[in-house]
Amino acid sequence: MLPILIISAYLIGSISMAIIICKILDLPDPRTQGSNNPGATNVLRIGGKKAAAATLLGDGLKGFIPVAIGQYLGLDIQAVALIALGAFLGHVYPVFFGFKGGKGVATFIGSLLALNYFVGLAFVATWLFVAKVLKISSLSALIATLLTPLYFYLLIENIEATYIVGLICLWIFYTHKSNIKRLLSGEEDSIKS
Protein backbone atom coordinates (compact mmCIF):
# COMPACT_ATOMS: atom_id res chain seq x y z
CA MET A 1 0.00 0.00 0.00
CA LEU A 2 2.83 2.44 0.81
CA PRO A 3 4.24 2.51 -2.77
CA ILE A 4 0.76 3.35 -4.11
CA LEU A 5 0.41 6.18 -1.58
CA ILE A 6 3.86 7.58 -2.44
CA ILE A 7 3.12 7.47 -6.19
CA SER A 8 -0.29 9.08 -5.58
CA ALA A 9 1.38 11.80 -3.51
CA TYR A 10 3.86 12.38 -6.34
CA LEU A 11 1.02 12.71 -8.87
CA ILE A 12 -0.89 15.12 -6.62
CA GLY A 13 2.32 17.09 -6.11
CA SER A 14 2.75 17.25 -9.89
CA ILE A 15 -0.37 19.42 -10.29
CA SER A 16 1.03 22.94 -10.73
CA MET A 17 -1.28 25.32 -8.92
CA ALA A 18 0.67 28.36 -10.17
CA ILE A 19 0.14 27.40 -13.81
CA ILE A 20 -3.52 26.46 -13.29
CA ILE A 21 -4.38 29.62 -11.32
CA CYS A 22 -2.60 31.87 -13.80
CA LYS A 23 -4.52 30.19 -16.63
CA ILE A 24 -7.87 30.58 -14.81
CA LEU A 25 -7.15 34.26 -14.08
CA ASP A 26 -5.89 34.90 -17.63
CA LEU A 27 -2.43 35.79 -16.34
CA PRO A 28 0.86 35.02 -18.12
CA ASP A 29 2.36 31.57 -17.66
CA PRO A 30 4.59 31.90 -14.55
CA ARG A 31 7.26 29.82 -16.29
CA THR A 32 7.73 32.66 -18.80
CA GLN A 33 7.49 35.72 -16.53
CA GLY A 34 9.36 37.15 -13.53
CA SER A 35 11.67 34.49 -12.09
CA ASN A 36 10.18 31.85 -14.46
CA ASN A 37 9.33 29.79 -11.39
CA PRO A 38 5.83 28.27 -11.00
CA GLY A 39 5.45 29.17 -7.34
CA ALA A 40 3.51 31.58 -5.14
CA THR A 41 6.25 34.23 -4.94
CA ASN A 42 6.42 34.55 -8.71
CA VAL A 43 2.61 34.53 -8.99
CA LEU A 44 2.62 37.44 -6.53
CA ARG A 45 4.81 39.39 -8.96
CA ILE A 46 2.62 38.50 -11.94
CA GLY A 47 -0.90 38.57 -10.54
CA GLY A 48 -0.95 40.10 -7.07
CA LYS A 49 -1.82 38.92 -3.57
CA LYS A 50 -5.05 37.01 -4.23
CA ALA A 51 -3.54 34.90 -7.01
CA ALA A 52 -0.45 34.25 -4.87
CA ALA A 53 -2.57 33.30 -1.84
CA ALA A 54 -4.58 30.84 -3.95
CA THR A 55 -1.34 29.34 -5.29
CA LEU A 56 0.15 29.08 -1.80
CA LEU A 57 -2.97 27.38 -0.45
CA GLY A 58 -3.16 24.97 -3.38
CA ASP A 59 0.51 24.06 -3.16
CA GLY A 60 0.19 23.57 0.61
CA LEU A 61 -2.81 21.26 0.17
CA LYS A 62 -0.78 19.14 -2.27
CA GLY A 63 1.50 18.28 0.64
CA PHE A 64 -1.15 18.22 3.36
CA ILE A 65 -3.74 15.91 1.78
CA PRO A 66 -1.53 12.88 0.93
CA VAL A 67 0.22 13.04 4.32
CA ALA A 68 -3.10 13.42 6.17
CA ILE A 69 -4.39 10.33 4.33
CA GLY A 70 -1.30 8.40 5.44
CA GLN A 71 -1.88 9.55 9.01
CA TYR A 72 -5.57 8.59 8.82
CA LEU A 73 -4.63 5.10 7.61
CA GLY A 74 -2.42 4.70 10.68
CA LEU A 75 0.92 4.46 8.92
CA ASP A 76 4.04 4.98 11.01
CA ILE A 77 5.87 8.30 10.94
CA GLN A 78 8.64 7.09 8.60
CA ALA A 79 6.07 5.91 6.03
CA VAL A 80 4.18 9.19 6.27
CA ALA A 81 7.44 11.13 5.86
CA LEU A 82 8.08 9.16 2.65
CA ILE A 83 4.64 10.22 1.41
CA ALA A 84 5.66 13.83 2.15
CA LEU A 85 8.81 13.26 0.09
CA GLY A 86 6.67 11.95 -2.78
CA ALA A 87 4.46 15.07 -2.77
CA PHE A 88 7.50 17.34 -2.59
CA LEU A 89 9.22 15.61 -5.53
CA GLY A 90 6.00 15.88 -7.53
CA HIS A 91 5.98 19.64 -7.02
CA VAL A 92 9.65 20.05 -7.89
CA TYR A 93 9.64 17.54 -10.80
CA PRO A 94 6.02 17.45 -12.04
CA VAL A 95 5.29 14.68 -14.52
CA PHE A 96 2.51 16.78 -16.09
CA PHE A 97 4.76 19.79 -16.79
CA GLY A 98 7.97 18.37 -18.22
CA PHE A 99 9.50 17.72 -14.79
CA LYS A 100 10.10 21.47 -14.30
CA GLY A 101 8.33 22.68 -11.19
CA GLY A 102 8.61 25.03 -8.26
CA LYS A 103 10.96 25.08 -5.30
CA GLY A 104 8.74 23.05 -2.99
CA VAL A 105 8.48 25.22 0.11
CA ALA A 106 4.67 25.56 0.23
CA THR A 107 4.15 21.85 -0.45
CA PHE A 108 6.69 21.07 2.27
CA ILE A 109 4.87 23.33 4.74
CA GLY A 110 1.60 21.56 3.96
CA SER A 111 3.27 18.20 4.56
CA LEU A 112 4.77 19.40 7.84
CA LEU A 113 1.40 20.66 9.09
CA ALA A 114 -0.05 17.19 8.47
CA LEU A 115 2.99 15.34 9.86
CA ASN A 116 3.02 17.39 13.04
CA TYR A 117 1.07 20.61 13.43
CA PHE A 118 3.63 22.12 15.81
CA VAL A 119 6.55 21.48 13.46
CA GLY A 120 4.60 23.12 10.64
CA LEU A 121 3.77 26.11 12.83
CA ALA A 122 7.41 26.37 13.92
CA PHE A 123 8.44 26.57 10.25
CA VAL A 124 5.82 29.23 9.50
CA ALA A 125 6.71 31.25 12.63
CA THR A 126 10.41 31.14 11.75
CA TRP A 127 9.68 32.22 8.17
CA LEU A 128 7.46 35.10 9.32
CA PHE A 129 9.98 36.31 11.91
CA VAL A 130 12.93 36.27 9.50
CA ALA A 131 10.82 37.86 6.75
CA LYS A 132 9.75 40.64 9.10
CA VAL A 133 13.34 41.33 10.17
CA LEU A 134 15.32 40.75 6.96
CA LYS A 135 12.56 41.23 4.33
CA ILE A 136 13.90 38.57 1.94
CA SER A 137 11.52 35.71 1.13
CA SER A 138 14.10 33.18 -0.04
CA LEU A 139 16.35 33.77 2.99
CA SER A 140 13.34 33.36 5.29
CA ALA A 141 12.51 30.05 3.62
CA LEU A 142 16.11 28.85 3.81
CA ILE A 143 16.53 29.68 7.51
CA ALA A 144 13.19 28.03 8.37
CA THR A 145 14.21 25.01 6.28
CA LEU A 146 17.60 24.79 7.99
CA LEU A 147 15.96 24.68 11.44
CA THR A 148 13.15 22.26 10.55
CA PRO A 149 15.02 18.96 11.08
CA LEU A 150 15.89 20.19 14.59
CA TYR A 151 12.26 21.15 15.29
CA PHE A 152 11.11 17.83 13.88
CA TYR A 153 13.51 15.71 15.92
CA LEU A 154 12.80 17.59 19.16
CA LEU A 155 9.04 17.20 18.74
CA ILE A 156 8.84 13.74 17.11
CA GLU A 157 12.00 12.02 18.44
CA ASN A 158 12.22 9.66 15.48
CA ILE A 159 15.62 9.71 13.81
CA GLU A 160 14.58 7.79 10.65
CA ALA A 161 11.73 10.20 9.90
CA THR A 162 14.03 13.12 10.73
CA TYR A 163 16.49 11.87 8.07
CA ILE A 164 13.69 11.90 5.48
CA VAL A 165 12.63 15.43 6.49
CA GLY A 166 16.31 16.43 6.42
CA LEU A 167 16.61 15.07 2.87
CA ILE A 168 13.67 17.26 1.79
CA CYS A 169 15.35 20.23 3.47
CA LEU A 170 18.61 19.59 1.59
CA TRP A 171 16.61 19.39 -1.63
CA ILE A 172 15.00 22.76 -0.85
CA PHE A 173 18.48 24.27 -0.58
CA TYR A 174 19.26 22.73 -3.97
CA THR A 175 16.10 24.20 -5.53
CA HIS A 176 17.14 27.60 -4.14
CA LYS A 177 20.67 27.50 -5.59
CA SER A 178 20.03 30.53 -7.83
CA ASN A 179 18.58 32.42 -4.85
CA ILE A 180 21.62 31.53 -2.77
CA LYS A 181 23.92 32.91 -5.48
CA ARG A 182 21.93 36.16 -5.53
CA LEU A 183 21.94 36.34 -1.72
CA LEU A 184 25.73 35.97 -1.67
CA SER A 185 26.12 38.70 -4.30
CA GLY A 186 23.58 41.00 -2.60
CA GLU A 187 21.24 40.92 -5.61
CA GLU A 188 18.26 39.03 -4.16
CA ASP A 189 14.97 40.92 -4.26
CA SER A 190 13.44 42.06 -0.99
CA ILE A 191 9.80 41.61 0.01
CA LYS A 192 7.75 44.61 -1.05
CA SER A 193 5.56 46.07 1.69
General description of the model:
- The chain has about 190 residues and is mainly alpha-helical.
- The protein has one domain (about 1-185).
- The protein has helices spanning about 1-15, 15-25, 40-45, 50-70, 75-90, 105-115, 115-135, 135-155, 160-175, 175-185.
- Helix 1 (about 1-15) packs parallel to helix 5 (about 75-90), helix 2 packs across helix 4 (about 50-70) and helix 7 (about 115-135) packs antiparallel against helix 8.
- The radius of gyration is 16 Å and the shape is globular.
- The model has no long low-confidence stretch (mean pLDDT about 95).
Name the descriptors:
193 residues, mainly alpha, globular, 74% helix
Q: Total number of β-strand segments?
A: 0
String of helices and strands:
HHHHHHHHHH
Q: Unreliable runs, pLDDT <50, ≥5 residues?
A: none
Alpha-beta classification: mainly alpha
Estimated share of beta-strand residues = under 5%
Alpha carbon gap, first and last residue: 46 Å
Give the overall shape, derived from the CA principal axes: globular
- Structurally, the number of domains stands at 1
Secondary structure topology:
Layout: H1 2-13, H2 17-24, H3 40-47, H4 49-72, H5 77-92, H6 105-115, H7 117-134, H8 137-156, H9 159-175, H10 177-185
Helix pairs in contact: 1-4, 1-5, 2-4, 3-4, 4-5, 4-6, 5-6, 5-9, 6-7, 7-8, 8-9
